[in-house]
Amino acid sequence: MNSLSTAIAQALVKYRHLSHLSQEELADAAGIHRTYVSQIERGLKMPTVAILFKISKALNIRASDLIGEIEGQYAELQD
Description:
With about 80 residues, the chain is mainly alpha-helical. The protein has helices at about 5-20, 25-30, 35-40, 50-60, 65-79. InterPro entries: Cro/C1-type_HTH (IPR001387), Lambda_DNA-bd_dom_sf (IPR010982), TransReg_Diox_bact_type (IPR050807).
C-alpha cells in the first residue's frame, strides 16, 4: 500500500466511524458497492474524485473536508 492509499484509507475509516456507519451503509448511501468501500479502506483501490464526492455526500461532510483530511494524513506519512 502506498502512502496516498494509506492516507485515503485512514481518512475514510475516520469519517465513517464518526458517522457511525457500516461499510454497507456507507456504500448504499454513496451508491457504490460495499466491497469497493472495503477495498478503499484496505488501500487496494484508489477512488476517483467523483467517488470521493459521492462518499463525502453520504458522510454528510464537504468533499473539501474529506480531501483535507486525506492531505493531512498524507503529510504525516511523509514525515
